[in-house]
Design brief:
The protein has 75 residues and is mostly helical. The chain is built from two helices and no strands. It is rod-shaped, with a radius of gyration of 31 Å.
Length: 75
């Protein structure tokens, strides 16, 4: 009688490692590539900062106009 063998075969282990390497390569390419996640996030941060600066400038202009009006007509 043959003994029942347990465990994984070398072929199954090699196939698993190859699949994991393919997945890792794809993930790295998506993250670092020319149009990857890091590039998109940096672009989004730059756009956000530009918009915040624009809104702050508009707010400062409005506050200056209100102060000028208050100084002329408020007293």
């Amino acid at each position: 009688m043959l003994k029942e063998q347990k465990g994984i075969t070398l072929v199954a282990l090699v196939i698993t490692v190859i699949v994991l390497l393919i997945l890792a390569g794809t993930a790295v390419t998506l993250a670092i590539g020319g149009d990857g996640i890091f590039t998109k996030s940096n672009t989004a941060v730059t756009k956000y900062n530009n918009k915040v600066n624009q809104q702050n400038n508009e707010l400062n202009t409005t506050v200056t106009a209100l102060n000028t009006y208050w100084n002329q007509y408020g007293n």
